[in-house]
Predict the 3D structure of the following.
Amino acid sequence: MSDALGWLPDGANLVVDADNADYLPTLPDGAFTLIYIDPPFNTGRTQSRRQTTMVRSDDGDRIGFQGRSYATVKGSLSRYDDTFADYWSFLEPRLAEAWRLLADDGTLYLHLDYREVHYAKVLLDMLFGRECFLNEIIWAYDYGARARNRWPTKHDNILVYVKNPSGYHFDNASVDREPYMAPGLVTAEKAARGKLPTDVWWHTIVSPTGKEKTGYPTQKPEGLLRRMVSASSREGDWVLDFFAGSGTLGAVAAQLGRRFVCVDQNPQALEVMTDRLGAVAEVVQHREPAQDREEASSNG
């Protein structure tokens, strides 16, 4: 990374305003132990979420606890376009950069859904090698689709690839444990300790009324990212998300003592990340060298 952004081995966490296609080539080979990316899913529609707040009002439009009346106050609308004419010409070069940027003991987590995940598996087998495929994680949740003419979709897919299948970092001892589904079938000691997660992760979405909520559409819960960061990086390691959105990876990395770079160019994402991560990260704007020269010339 250029010195203008101040990124050194002991440098500051970064939130970067940039087109990731322009910015990723400026980063050094093998710099990141973990890369998590949650790219647009190519749903063919605009993703949006409006923040709402309830305030006490005698003539409100909702009735709450103990019959109290509340008025709904609509806040800002966050949105981004999730339609691509050629999705893989968009994503493939960015995944190739992810391979270059991973440390030898590093791990990539690619978060998609049923629309593109099977094509992604074939592509990542080519980029990384089939022997570098570690897992397909199923994130199962309890909110959303209510289809009546097919099975409702209630999960996302997370493909996990490692740079070196003989030497990747994985620490399951640091991962949060889950309750046994049949605790009576194990010893009391095991039941109290809980079991290690499998490749199916049951975790609710970000609650619309929870303290994690930022208002950004498609925000992912911290519990999901905490499991990845805990297992696939060490304290002090660098982690990267170049479709950073609401900055959940950065928030989790800061909590767990990792160092992070979060990249996005969506104005709403940058506003959310500045509010969420500004106290623990430097917020910078990446500009191409040609743009810098043009501005220097115009300022003469």
About this structure: Confidence is low (pLDDT under 50) at residues 1-6, 43-54, 72-84, 292-300.
